[in-house]
Design goal:
The protein is α+β, with helices and mostly antiparallel strands and about 290 residues long. The chain is about 30% helix and about 25% strand.
């Protein structure tokens, strides 16, 4: 049986349970790690993990933790707090352009991983030597992106739910302003960016549906010549497949998509300068 364990920062890995220890979700387990042992919390059990596992080798669960093991686990959490602040000080001392995000102690204390973000590649070799001299264990500095930073820290989105990246999302797809345009969303950076200051991951969830539907629909600001005059496309409803036309004197009328074939289509004019300015301001929130 395979078991998925969760570690600090929403890191999740799948393990074999060769000794068939009885586990329930929420239990602690000590597992094999790279050159040592680690401790995680059971996150998922069942045959579904067969489909979730990747190509990487799967390590084994070693045993259930003792009371002493759990005390050590909590002590590691306390040490991480101290190591985090010490590393921040050392970054300043070495004048490195990087932001320390998180620290993770391996359960057996043989390895400490420092996670950081940076705009460019950072030469941190002297920093590693400094930290290794202080902690006397193997030191790893791992550069992550701003989305990974949000995943490790956690939080709640504007929808009121736990961030997707901390609850279930495993990989980050590139997201551009085109995703918002295809869903006819206002190009407002404050509403379309998440806690990571990048475009919301959820813009991708319904993108295929919107792309398929909008191909059937006329673009906004296009026009139709009808018996009642020229109407401008003011709103499209991709769910009910209806189009709202605005005529002179602000008179509006809703039509079924099939009814538009009886009218003469007039393509929209080129995008306004306001649209261009909105796209430019939103571009900084795209994935680089």
């Amino acid at each position: 049986m395979m078991i998925e364990l969760a570690f600090k920062g929403e890191r999740k890995e799948i393990y074999h349970n060769p000794q068939q220890f009885p586990f329930q979700v929420g239990d602690y387990a000590i597992v094999e790690a790279e050159k040592g042992e680690d401790l995680g919390i059971v996150n998922q059990i069942g045959s579904y993990l067969e489909r979730k596992k990747g190509d990487a080798p799967i390590r084994n669960i070693i045993r259930k933790p003792t009371v002493g093991d759990l005390d050590r686990y909590r002590e590691n959490r306390r040490k991480e707090f101290d190591a985090y602040h010490l590393c921040k000080k050392k970054v300043i001392d070495h004048n490195l352009d990087m932001k320390v995000v998180d620290v993770e102690y391996q359960f057996d204390g043989q390895k400490i991983t420092f996670y950081f973000t940076a705009e460019k590649r950072v030469d941190f070799r002297e920093l590693v030597k400094d930290l290794a001299g202080i902690f006397r264990v193997r030191i790893e500095l791992r550069q992550i992106g701003v989305r990974d930073e949000a995943k490790r820290i956690g939080g709640y989105g504007a929808c009121g739910r736990k961030l997707c990246c901390t609850s279930w999302l495993k990989e980050f797809d590139p997201i551009t302003t085109q995703c918002a345009k295809e869903q006819n969303l206002p190009l407002n950076p404050q509403k379309l960016s998440g806690l990571c200051s990048r475009l919301l991951c959820c813009l991708m969830y319904e993108r295929d549906f919107y792309r398929a539907q909008t191909e059937k629909m006329p673009p906004l600001r296009s026009q139709y010549r009808t018996a009642k005059g020229i109407g401008t496309v003011a709103h499209i409803d991709v769910f009910n497949e209806t189009v709202t036309l605005q005529f002179a004197e602000n008179r509006v009328e809703k039509f079924e998509l099939g009814e538009l074939s009886d009218f003469t289509f007039i393509p929209p004019a080129e995008g306004s300068s306001d649209d261009a300015q909105q796209e430019t301001s939103l571009a900084q929130f795209e994935d680089k």
